[in-house]
Design a protein that fits this description.
By secondary structure, the chain is mostly helical. It has 8 helices and no strands. Helix 2 crosses helix 7 (129-140). Helices cover 78% and strands 0% of the residues. The relative contact order is 0.10.
Length: 172
């Protein structure tokens, strides 16, 4: 057994010992934290179910392919491979959906292709914006996102653009 496999158990034991040294009822604190976690979970599940359902409907309806074809000329003008349009549409909404789209791109074009590299960098350079907003704002009880969505989507787009640019600069 190596030291890295002991990090988590030692950390948990250390926190328990520290809490007992400070005369904290560790078990009560643990169960209270679990109760709060379940309360948060109950608040965010409806938003997550709605979000994942919308992504599935968007893909199944064919709207994603239509919208991708519509965006292709603009993307080519910006130096972003048009093949990555489905990834750019799904990534802000669903991490697992984006991973599935990227897997399709890698299987089709190969991991060492320009499209494959751009897709991989896009996955690492952008965020699942709507998922993150749904989880964190739902947990905090915030209903009006105000400028969050436009700012986050602008950041995602810049991440997509920078991904294509950096792959072109570093890999030719």
């Amino acid at each position: 057994m190596n030291l890295s496999s002991l990090v988590i158990p030692l950390l948990l034991a250390g926190v328990a010992v520290y809490g007992m040294g400070r005369r904290v009822d560790v078990y009560s604190a643990l169960t209270h934290g679990a109760e709060e976690g379940l309360t948060v979970l109950l608040r965010i599940i409806p938003a997550l179910v709605g979000l994942l359902t919308a992504v599935s409907m968007f893909r199944a309806s064919g709207a994603m392919e239509w919208f991708s074809d519509l965006c292709a000329p603009v993307l080519e003008l910006l130096g972003i491979p048009a093949e990555t349009a489905p990834l750019m549409l799904v990534r802000p909404v669903s991490g697992s959906g984006a991973l599935a789209v990227a897997s399709d791109l890698l299987a089709t074009y190969g991991p060492d292709s320009y499209v494959g590299r751009v897709a991989a960098v896009m996955l690492g350079s952008t965020e699942t914006t709507f998922y993150t907003i749904a989880v964190y704002f739902g947990a905090a009880g915030i209903h009006k996102t105000r400028h969050t969505v436009p700012a986050a989507l602008t950041a995602d787009f810049m991440g997509f653009f920078a991904s294509a640019l950096s792959v072109r600069l570093f890999f030719g």
